[in-house]
Design a protein that fits this description.
By secondary structure, this protein is mainly beta. The chain has two domains: 81 residues, Elongation Factor Tu (Ef-tu), domain 3 (Beta Barrel); 94 residues, Elongation Factor Tu (Ef-tu), domain 3, CATH 2.40.30.20. Helices cover 13% and strands 43% of the residues. A hairpin with a 3-residue loop joins strand 4 and strand 5.
């Protein structure tokens, strides 16, 4: 489990294929940036842009993870070198500053707008239609591993657009500063919303 509070901005420094086949996954080497690795063991989980990955090797300043082709197909930003948001798995002694996050990407969003508004920035993302029912005004959403609050939701035939206000600290402390219109982002819906939807669907099917 994670909180969606980015601990450091790291950098994917190299990718190497995990096999000779075209559909093979990749091994990533990640410079941990300011993320302390002294308490990280082989087999521990670290979220990269919101995707939970398992550490398979480490040094004092970097670590490696293996990413399957399935994960590469369902995420954005893990198939190229460059900066990534990093967060170590939550411990019971940690503050829950964001919200409960599983590190499982539910879908890819499309950036429709990213522009300054006063001292902040407005981020508008189009989510896949199937995720729209989990988005709510003042609800939580994870974008590239960052726990954020939804300010507006607009349903449409092709999908669901939602708007987020990014304060200067979030821009400075995460990779969201690099977003561009037309780019893709990793989305994870609120864990509680997922269970509520499941319970309601079961209740409705029993009633019928």
């Amino acid at each position: 489990m994670f909180t969606g509070i980015v601990a450091a901005v790291g950098k994917i420094t190299s990718l190497s294929p995990l096999g000779n086949q075209s559909g093979a996954g990749v091994r990533l080497t990640v410079d941990a940036g300011g993320l302390p690795l002294s308490d990280v063991a082989i087999g521990d989980s670290i979220a990269l842009n919101g995707a939970c990955m398992t550490v398979i090797a480490k040094t004092d300043i970097s670590f490696m993870v293996d990413v399957s082709r399935e994960s590469l197909n369902r995420t954005a930003g893990l198939d190229v070198t460059g900066e990534v948001n990093l967060e170590k798995a939550l411990t019971l002694a940690d503050r829950l500053g964001g919200h409960l996050v599983s590190g499982h990407v539910d879908g890819l969003g499309l950036v429709r707008k990213f522009a300054p508004v006063g001292e902040s920035w407005e981020l508008v993302i189009e989510a896949p239609k199937e995720l729209g029912k989990y988005l709510a005004y003042k609800g939580s959403i994870v974008v590239n591993g960052v726990s954020l609050t939804v300010n507006r939701v607009t349903d449409a035939a092709a999908g669901c657009e939602f708007s987020i206000n990014l304060i200067p600290h979030t821009i400075e402390a995460t990779t969201l500063k690099h977003l561009k219109e037309g780019g893709k982002v990793n989305l994870e819906i609120d864990l509680i919303a997922r269970y509520v939807e499941r319970m309601l669907s079961i209740s409705n099917s029993v009633a019928e």
